[in-house]
Amino acid sequence: MEREIKLSAGSNLESAVYTLLAAKARNEDVYCNFNGVVLHSNTVSMDSAYMEVLGCTKREYDERQKEKLEKYEREEKLAQQKAYENIPGWIEKGQSLIFPERYAEWEKYVKAHATDLYYGFELDAALEIMTALENGATVEEAKQILDKQGRLSSSLIRNIIFLFSSKGPEFWEATAHEEISAENKQILEAKKQENIQLAQNNAEKTTNHTL
């Protein structure tokens, strides 16, 4: 009498077929349910299973997967190359928006993150908001830009702005989705005071230079 066998979690179609063929070799009459398709040990073959479940042979499936992988690798390589090419521009743009005391830190940050998971897209997103803030946009208007970007982790973008923008702490506060902890309030206040001091220092340098 044919009996059903349960596949282990995460089993793919190939392993399911091998399980059925192994049962057949032991003269066991079994079947399994794979993604809604019932496969029988006494009639299954690798290609018949793939045709029933995926509509193609095993070889065709493997070729498609290989093509997808090769396409993905090409796209990743191009994205990485483009990120490398964008590094000087990101550095220059950021340095035009931040205090000179943070230039070295910004350059180091850009080089470290240009080829990470997002290939620098988060740098573009943060720079867009930092530019708006430096051009007089309110924190609420900058928050709307973040909401519209939507394609990346907002927490990562918020952190970049917090670290480098003269209005970073205020923006971080305005975009917090949860109550800010006492510890984070201390960090925010310290950053605000740091920004005030840097602004004063640079204002004095400008005044002295013009005298």
Characterise the protein shown here:
This protein has 211 residues and is mainly α. It has two domains: 3-55, no CATH class; 66-210, no CATH class. The chain is 68% helix and 5% strand. Strands 1-2-3 form a three-stranded mixed β-sheet, covered by helices on one side. A hairpin with a 2-residue loop joins strand 2 (30-34) and strand 3. The chain is elongated.
Features:
9 helices; 211 residues; mainly alpha
List the helices and strands and how they pair.
Layout: E1 3-4, H1 13-25, E2 30-34, E3 37-40, H2 46-54, H3 58-95, H4 103-113, H5 121-134, H6 139-149, H7 154-164, H8 168-174, H9 182-210
Parallel strand pairs: 1-2
Antiparallel strand pairs: 2-3
Helix pairs in contact: 1-2, 3-4, 5-6, 5-7, 7-8, 8-9
Summarize the structure.
Helix 3 packs antiparallel against helix 4 and helix 5 runs antiparallel to helix 6. The chain is built from nine helices and three strands.
> Main sheet?
3 strands, mixed
Helix % is: 55-70%
Distance between the termini: 100 Å
| Proportion of strand residues | 5-15%
What number of domains? 2
Strand adjacency order, main sheet: 1-2-3
Number of helices: 9
Number of E-state strands: 3
